[in-house]
Every structure is written in structure tokens, then in C-alpha cells.
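C-alpha cells please, single chain.
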Amino acid sequence: MAEKGFKRKLTAILSADVQGYSRLMDDNEEATVRTLTAYRKVITDLTRQFRGRVIDNPGDNILAEFASVVDAVSCGVKIQRELAKRNAESPDERKMQFRIGVNLGDVIEEEGRIYGEGVNIAARLEGLAKAGGVCLSGTAFDHVKNKVSVGYQYIGKQTVKNIRDPIRVYKVLMDPEAIGKVMEEEEPEPVKWGWKAIPLPDKPSIAVLPFDNLSADPQYESIADGVSESIIYTLSYLPDMFVISRNSTFTYNGKPVKIRQVAEDLGVQYILEGSIMRAGNRARVTAQLIDATSDYHLWSGRYDKGMEDFFGVLDDITKTIAIELQVKVSSKIADLTRKTKSFDAWAFATRAYSLVRSSGKENTLEAHKLAGKAVELDPTYGFGWGLLAVAHLADAMYGFSESPGESIRLAVECNEKALNLDPALSCATASKGAIYMLQGKLDEAITFGEKAIAMGPSIDTNYRMLGIIMSYAGKFEEAIALYNKMMRLNPFYSLAHLRDYAMCCLMAKRYAEARDSFNELHQRAKKEEYFMLAANLGLCAVYANLGKVEEARSHVLEILEINPNYSVQEAKKAYRWRDPEYSEWLISSLRNAGLPE
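Here you go.
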């Protein structure tokens, strides 16, 4: 028996929305609202002309239904042609382009509104359409083929959010030369994402782009970066998500980007982009979550709040992303970069975080200062103390300080403060593993390295730190696996990371992989992007073990051109493992290559 007040029916549904609506609103609210009002009237009038009715028009979306699929498609085409004429009179940055999806499906009607999968599919088709375009479902196409003066392009079966089975999708071709044609009629393979040999992970994957600073004052650039940093860091704690490192996403900072290209570069399905505008004690934050496989905007949010609500906005964005991607969020997971009530302490700490990840003596020195300011403002800020510990560790591990022993002592002191204040800090847990390594306690170092990864499974530096520990322990195969995970989370990994990976391959006697990696370093060194000496030393050892004497000798000659006094004795200072057997093997390889004593 049918439920009272409901009735089912088969109907043609048209769903339309504005592409880039948030950007238009940010640029000029009043002009956008005026244009949307005018365009909405055009769409409503044309819907009536084609015997349809507008059911709903929240925000920039319009939902309409028609008794005839032919009428729905004809109306969609007419809408796009009419709006194209109007857009021709507007500058490029102010053009308002709609995307339209049309489906024929079963719906539930209640009090003049319609619901159900038929409506959901129309909305997903809209997300697959390009700006100014129309997409149809297979069921709609079957009813309109040869009945509307347009052409069609079959773009395959598409899997879309919350729809169980893939749907056939056709793009409407409005060019007069395409009338009556159906291109790519034979069914292609479903869309598969695996560009550049980077397959999609088996869990929701996301890259958070640097938020744009729309404030008049460029000093707020660091706040915009901090918003992105915080969202990335928090999402990285979710075990059911795959989150690209900030070092890779921030390579797009300040550059015009194409969402699909970014997703291809990084091997992810979802992209989050946004902006922040601060004026006095208020901030406007916008964000939008995009499925790059279909260019469908899953969610967009806009927050106009006082700075006292700023952290609440970050929480809301992060939780909403997880909900949209159907990821379970533990109540214990919070934004660990901002367990402070001090906005300035948070700002200093997020800047320090980006610097300690970038390595180098100057960056580490600046990170010391910024993290110091953070804990000075808020002595209870665990994340700030954890960053200070990381900076002291870098001093000890990379020879930035005159007293490595003192640096280790300070690292221990700061790290204990961090963990006492916030035991769930992944970065401090990883640092504790590194401290144990420097103290020669490798079992404890490995235990804490593994614990850090379990706490923050998408934090790429956790994998690198444990990789360093495993390599020092002589567990080269385990280190290689960790570096591979680190490089997948951070596809634009640094050359220092590549060198660590190449060395592990060499020590594991994976000579082909080591050769390819050291050759890449050698090519980059020719462009003055890396150290020629380190690249040549690696190639010397690789070719010596491959029995290629001439190639090994040529790289020895390059080393001596750089430093005529370089010798086996100098190399001994550079390469150390817990077991001296590994150092002796490598030094023997360099001798065999012809490096002088």
C-alpha cells in the first residue's frame, strides 16, 4: 500500500548549477547575485516554454522536471545557447556558466517536490558536464536519439557517488556539424585512474591545495597557508584516508591550476581548494571539495566569522570533508596543530612546521625562532614543543650545531614536554624514535617509529624517519618499503629523499634501482639542483658492483675534478651504519671503482 502523501512517477529531471560559483561570489557578491537572478529568470522562462516546471532553486542550483525527455533536453540546449549569448558580453572573469544534467528516472513526489535516485543521478550528471554543456543518462539518451537537433558523444559508464551501479553517460554536442551523429558509440573502458604509474589508493584520496589569500595585506599569506597545513595535518591522522603531503600540494602555491591535472600529478581522486580573506578581527573562509574524476563539486562552504571562531571553522571544514567522503571520524581526533587558544601561537607553529619539513640549515634556524615564539606565547602548546624538538634533532643529525650532544639533550627535553602535554602527537612520537636511534637504542627507536605511523598514517615524514632508522639498523628492504610509501604520499619528494632511497637500494644490492636513482640525482646535479659529489659517489659504488669498470672510473674522475683531495678516508666520514660491516662493504666498492686512499 502506498504511503499517504507520496506518489511515485517516471519523469525527466533537469539539474543545473553554476561552475565556479564560490569564486564569483568572492570576487564580487553584488554583481554575482544580479547575474544569477537574471540567468535564473531565463532558465525559469525557458523551462515553462518547454512545458516543464522549476521545482527548487537553492543557491546556484536549479532543479526542474518535464513530462517529456525530449522537452527536457531541448530546454537544456536552449538554456546553454541563450546563456552563451549573454556571457559573450561579459569579461572572462565574470562569465557565469551553468552545467546541466538530464535524467529519466523514477522519483517520489511529495507536496510538489521530488526525491529519489532519479534526482540524484541528474545531479551527478550535472557534475560530469563541462561549463556550458549538457550531459544525459543512458535512459534519457535512449528516448531522445534522433529527436533533437544535436549530436552526442558517449563517454562511457561512469561510477558516481551514492549510486550503486555505473551509469551510461552521453555528452550533448551542440555544434551544427555534429547534428545526428553519435560519436564513440562502442563502449569504452570505464575511467581508470593510474596516471604516471600512480594508481589510486584503495581508500578515499585527497590533496588540499594552498588556500588563496584574498586579503589586501600580503602578511596574511602565512595564515592562508596555515589553514591548509592544519587541514592536511588533521586529515593525515584518519586511518581510512590517504592524504597527500603539504610539500607536494604547496608546489602549486600562487600558480593557476587545473583540478584534473593536479589530481593526475598527485594520483588522488579528491581536491580541496579554498580562500581566506581577513579584515580586522573578521575572516571569510571559503572551501570546496571536488571529485576530480568528474569535476563534480561534492561540497562547498563559506564562513564569515570573527577571529575568535577561527579554529571552529577549521574543525568544521575537516569534519565535513570526512563526512562527504564517508570516512569515520573518531571523537578523539582533533586538529593537533592547534591545541592552543592563542591564534598567534598557532600561526607561528604552522610556519615552523613547514620549515622543519623543508630541511636545510637556514630553514631549521628560522623554525627554531618561530617554534620558540609559539611556546613563549603558550607554554602549554604541545605541538610547539614538538617542533622545537624536531629542530634540535635536525641540528644534531645534519651537523647544523657546534655541539650535537647539546642538541640531542635539548631535543629530549623539548620532546618530553611535548608528549607530556599531548601524548597523541605523532611528530613527537616519531622524534622520540629518532632520539633513541641517536642513543643507539634501535629496538626502542623502531617501536616508536612504528607507533608514529600508526598514529598519523598519512604523515609522510613518519615513514621517512622510520626509513632512516631501519637503514641505520641495516634493515634495507624494510627501509625501501617505507621510502616508497613516503614518496607516494609526497610525489614531489625532495632530492635528499631520493638520495636516501637510492642508498638503501645500493645497500640492498638492488643495483638497477640504485643506478636509475643516482643517475637522476646526477642529471639534477648538472642543473645545480643537487650535490654532484654525492651523486658521483653513489654511481661509483653501483658501477663497481655491476663490474662496469670504465663507468665507475669516469665518476671517480668527476669526483676528483670537484675535489682533487677527495679520498677513501674522506668517504669513511660520510657513511656510517650501526654494523661497521656495511660501511666496510661500501668503502670497498669505492676502492674497486678507483677512488684513491
